Amino acid sequence: MNIDRGDVERAFGHAVSSYDVEPIDPELRIHSVTGGLFRVRADGETLVLKIVRRGVDEDPGGLWVSGADPSHRNYWKREWLAFDSGLLDRLPGRLRAARNVLTEERSDDECWIWMSDVTGRHGPTLTDDDYSTIGRDLGTTQGAFVAGGELPSDEWLSGSWLRGWVGACEQLVGSLREDSPTDDRLAPLRPLRDRVLALWDAHERLLDISESAPQTLVHCDFWPANLFVGDDGHAVAVDWSQIGIGGLANDLDQITLDPVWMQARPDFSLQRLEELVLPAYVDGLHEAGAEVTEAQVRWWYAAAAGAHYSWMAGAVAQAARKPDVVGAQEHRFGRPFADLVVDRARVVERAVALGESALGSTP
User: Fold this and answer.
1) Torsions phi, psi of 284, nearest 5?
2) Domain boundaries for CATH 3.30.200.20 within the chain
């Protein structure tokens, strides 16, 4: 990546004697909108540069395709606009974003975001207390919007993100409607197949429940790799490429289910993660003045989790048919594919149970 001295000095705001550029997790870039993520060091200071671009995708129906229209679930320029507009520097409550340093439009198809280098525990190093901190801080920020803060109305913000995700998951459900796969590695998923398909028949109801929650600002990619907790005891979220308007509790399932799905805490109890996050989130909402009950939050959470993760059983089944995908996942997570299936079956089972509970109850 060509980042010249002029680029660096413009971002740091002064001349530099030397600098170096380090790619950050280059093998993990799955979004076609991400052109690169780099840590830039210059004379004892560090900044992070994120390059966003109008991506080109082989499969326009994929889950993480780039969108050219602001209404698209994965609009390529959304995060740049969130920084450039100042929205992320004005978040109410305790949750923070990385500090915007400089935003540049390099061309019609590429933008650069220079931001502060966030440090702290994140991903697999998050502690139990950190999960509660994340839940509380998210609650104070989202609750502030519900309690009287004016919601942003920019056209580039995502809307009904979860509904768009579920629409893209229809092809995953279609793969489950085929004969039950015989691959022995998929054995943990087979008992869940009929329940997933039955829940799909009620997915519109799940979305209706989730969307009935008070509207707030949502992150939509709120998983451990995008979350930091520093020594000051506050949570910072990065990667705001899906930022938009959605219901309370829409972000919770990615911090309760994704730690196991994405192997940040593969052996951890999903119910324990919920115990750490959900009550703290409700406390944060109440601290911000949002008048909702814990029963309501758990209902919205259950519906969103069921609508978000249940269909991923189909993604696992599809991956099993592609040796290159299996190999890539084994390399990324350092575990046999069969072991990953066991963990992901736990996530699907919990998501289905949550979806079923949402359909069978009211707060």
Assistant:
1) -65, -40
2) 5-116
Cβ atoms of residues 233 and 242 within 8 Å = no
- Residue that has been written with the tokens 């799955």 in this structure: 30
Tokens of 28: 């993990």
Tell me the pLDDT of the chain (363 aa) as tens digits: 789 999 999 999 999 999 999 999 876 655 678 888 999 999 999 999 999 998 765 665 666 677 778 888 889 999 999 999 999 999 999 999 999 999 999 999 999 999 999 999 999 999 999 999 999 999 999 999 999 878 999 999 999 999 999 999 999 998 888 766 678 999 999 999 999 999 999 999 999 999 999 999 999 999 999 999 998 899 999 999 999 999 999 999 999 999 999 999 999 999 999 999 999 999 999 999 999 999 999 999 999 999 999 999 999 999 999 999 999 999 999 999 999 999 999 999 999 999 999 999 888
Question: Is the separation of the CB atoms in 207 and 307 below 8 Å?
Answer: yes
Q: What is the CATH topology of the domain spanning 121-359?
A: Aminoglycoside 3'-phosphotransferase; Chain: A, domain 2 (3.90.1200)
Tally Cβ neighbours within 10 Å of residue 211.
Answer: 18
SS (H, E, C) 63-104: CCCCECCCCCCCECCHHHHHHHCCHHHHCCCCCEECCEEEEE
Q: CA 171, 29, 348 angle in degrees (round to 5)?
A: 40
Q: Which CATH superfamily is domain 5-116 in?
A: Phosphorylase Kinase; domain 1 (3.30.200.20)
Distance CA 266, CA 271 (A): 13
What is residue 28's DSSP assignment?
Answer: G
Query: Measured between alpha carbons, how far is 32 from 307 in angstroms, rounded to an integer?
Result: 24
- Residue intervals of the chain classified under CATH 3.90.1200.10 are 121-359
Rounded Cα distance between 137 and 236, Å, is 9
Q: Which helix (H) or strand (E) holds 215?
A: strand 215-218
